[in-house]
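Fold it.
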Amino acid sequence: MSENNSAIKIGDEVKYTDIVTIIDTVDDDAVEVRTDAGYSFWTTRDNLDK
């Protein structure tokens, strides 16, 4: 763990980077994604980088 990560505490907003697969879309903006670990969640396209 780096020194920067040692100060992270409950309630902090942090940037999380993971490779995900888009598995569903609704409208033009909402997408459901799945992580390599098998978790899925909904987000918006502006939260994703290709």
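The two ends are 27 Å apart (CA to CA).
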